[in-house]
Fold DUF805 domain-containing protein.
Amino acid sequence: MLDYMVMPFKRYADFKGRSLRIEYWGFALLNFIVYAVILGISMVLGFSFGAFQQVEQGGDPSALFGAGFFTLVGLAGIYSLAVFIPSIAVAVRRFHDRDMSGWWYLGFIVLGLIPFVGWIATIASFVITCLPGTPGPNRFGMDPRDPTGAEVFA
């Protein structure tokens, strides 16, 4: 499983080919874990959601900008920049596995910006990433489950 989680980093800007569901969702799980750890580190260093409540009640806004806040923004920003291209690439390869062009991903992103339509586009994109890929080779390459393309009982 760990191999699939880090595979998008190995295929950093590879927009060709296909990716299995486990690679896509493993990478999503890795991102969730990393952001949870960054949030945990920030909480330990003093970032507090209680500071937001104090600011809303008329408190000093500079209380938000402690060491925890800068740790959160810095680490999360650096990690976000590091995974930006691999995230797009693995999503495009996941669409390729469904025999869909990677431009569909851009279409879902644009549709996601439109109120109400964005919810439908997000749900549709989620469903597409959950569906199994097309069996056998398609126009984007060989089946990652069966790279030799051999049919045993043919």
